[in-house]
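Table S2 (continued). Query chain:
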Amino acid sequence: MKKIRVAVLYGGRSGEHEVALRSAASVINNLDRSRYEIVPIGIDKNGKWHGAGPELLQAKTVSLPIYRNLPEVTLPPNPSASESGLVAMPSSAGNAPAVAGGNSTPFDVVFPVMHGTNGEDGTIQGLLELGEVAYVGCGVLASAVGMDKDVAKRLIAAAGLPVVPSLTIRLGEWTSGKANFLARMEKELGLPCFVKPANSGSSVGVHKVKTREDFAAAVEDAFRFDLKVLVEKAISAREIELSVLENGEYGKPPLVSIAGEVNATHEFYSYEAKYLDENGAELLIPAKITPEQLKEAQAIARKAFETLECEGLARCDLFLDKVSGKFYFNEVNTLPGFTSISMYPKMWEASGLPYSELLTKLIDLALARQARKQALVRDFTKG
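Corresponding output:
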């Protein structure tokens, strides 16, 4: 049987670049080599795409490097009549450098391993759509909505799911009405509260504000990372996560794993707790919740996945109020971490789905979705 060529697209221009390198290494190390031929494509921090030779696949590294001296490649947004593939960029001498397979490297499906901005916000998904390329994970809409915490919460609330009270501040509004937002925060949310960029990942730019004097500085810092800021009421809560997977039987409800729990040793699950302090958090799988609570959490995660039009995969993060015992939707991650210790694959492993089989299912789902799209009518001609 001919092997499926999987282009693993990793790195990218975001603050989560290094995390993506570790995720990509785990994905490549766990892809079934008897079924798949792997085409690594690294995107450096300047946004340049680099092809890679087979030597990159030999060593099982913890973090997948990007060799900037390797040929630059691009993915044309105009699909050819034959097959999708990378095209080598001309060198400074005007000659197209050879990449694996010559000046063009065909593939069957893309596995994006990119976190945060320009990775899971719908931008790379839009490029892949223009190229009519099969790809793993959510489409443009769900990716963009999942990244925008404000819009996601509005849709989730409209679907009848519980969300923590919040208010949204846009940069232009803040510039002309800082005092107004301070008053609204105190009246509608109270202190303490969380201030965060509406579009960011890994808790970048997130602050827990305890005094009114610290509010403006926190908002200003969050605006360094986005043009829209979300202010949320702080509740005493446990962080519960669930992995959601599109059902292989098209049209059936998505599948949800057992729950995991993030027990941060810092005041909250900050960027430092996630990546800089090796003792920043304890990851518990399964979460210490009752069977009834697990059932409720799985129902919320399943409905959130459907409400936000997710496909392929997503990790759904919830708050469990320590006082009331009530669950609240926090966010979805449409391209969650895929390192060997990341919660998404670990929760599926604990649910009976090994890492390698999970990757196979995700690729199968991507190819099936592309086949459905290709069957659609693109134009209308009167008979």
